[in-house]
Amino acid sequence: MAGQPDFALDYDKLHAMQKGMHELIERAGGEADTAYDTMSTLSTDEHVSIFGNVDLAIVFGVFYRDSRARFAEGEEKLTMFGDMFGGLADALFQQDGMLAASAASSVANAKADDWQAQKEAHDDWVQDKTAWNDYLDSIGAGDYFREHPDADIYEVCQGEDRPEWCKDWENDENPPQPPGPEPDEPPAEPPSEVRYTGPDGSSVKIELSYDDHDNVIKEETTVTSAGGEVVTLSTAYDGPPELHETPDGRSYDSRDYTVVSESPDGIRTVDHFAINDDGSGTRTTTESYVEDGERITDKETYFREGPFDKWHSDHGGGESGEDEDDGGAEIPESPWTTNKI
């Protein structure tokens, strides 16, 4: 079918294959009670007495040593082969998890934006309604509209028996406008949690935290596969948005922030972005992982010259293999949080 991928890989099945290979190795290398293994523990003299021939006893000893050596080599290679499946599964899930987190972040941002827009619209209506009621009281029309809340002042003042206060309204050069119908009032708190669950049991959960002015200051995303593998991603902002505009009219946010990601294989990456008012900045990436039982930490520093430039590994700028987009250089899609929904 057009548009379908040539092949697809299921990382949960890859993890199952890795587990199956490891279990096979454990079974094959476990304590054996066969006559073959029992014979391997005997001395040469005992072998001679059993086989009745010294040459045959020696041949058995050589055969056993060679076969065990080949088994050990096969065990090592089978372990490595199984780990290849696990490594591929982790890499695929890490990539898919980041894509899922990004997509879910966009949806959560949209929900937060929608809540903010509804709140602003309702707050504006309340303010206009208060100003309008105060004005009606000032011209003596307050009681009339409290008794007739659905009345239209334009229709009322065009009637033959119109009230006296209509003259004051008509003679006013700049009267306030009627507020119109009340818009929908959003929940008291912004959305703080967005969650999606797939038919296979996989899930994406996004939690948002706000400051006292309803600015998103932290985003936390957890992606869980059907097999229980987990990828987490969190972004913490150092305060409310600090918006700037370039001469060509593009906007960007200059606040500092930190992104922390953790993959199923235990790799933890911390990216700290220090952004200047002109959009230039420094990105410090620290990656830690366990290798041969020891935790290893790698650290890299990147730079950019402007709000929409790529990050590079030296002050000289230019393209390099380590360049990559910040992804948050422009105004973040309104930081979001979660609500008790």
Annotate the secondary structure layout.
Layout: H1 11-28, H2 35-40, H3 44-51, H4 54-138, H5 142-147, H6 153-156, H7 165-171, E1 193-197, E2 203-210, E3 216-224, E4 230-237, E5 243-245, E6 251-253, E7 257-262, E8 268-275, E9 281-291, E10 294-304
Antiparallel strand pairs: 1-2, 2-3, 3-4, 4-7, 5-6, 7-8, 8-9, 9-10
Helix pairs in contact: 1-4, 3-4
Q: Determine the fraction of residues in helical runs and give it as a percent range.
A: 25-40%
Please state the oligomeric state of the protein chains shown: single chain
Number of strands: 10
Which radius of gyration do the C-alpha atoms yield?
35 Å
* Overall average pLDDT: 75
Biggest sheet: strand arrangement: 1-2-3-4-7-8-9-10
Can you walk through the features of this model?
This protein has 341 residues and is of the alpha+beta class. 39% of the residues lie in helices and 21% in strands. Strands 1-2-3-4-7-8-9-10 form an eight-stranded antiparallel sheet, with helices on one face. A two-stranded antiparallel ribbon has the order 5-6. A hairpin with a 5-residue loop joins strand 2 and strand 3.
Which descriptors would you attach to this protein?
8-stranded antiparallel β-sheet; two-stranded antiparallel sheet; 10 strands; 21% strand; disordered C terminus
Task: Summarize the model shown.
This protein is α+β, with helices and mostly antiparallel strands and 341 residues long.
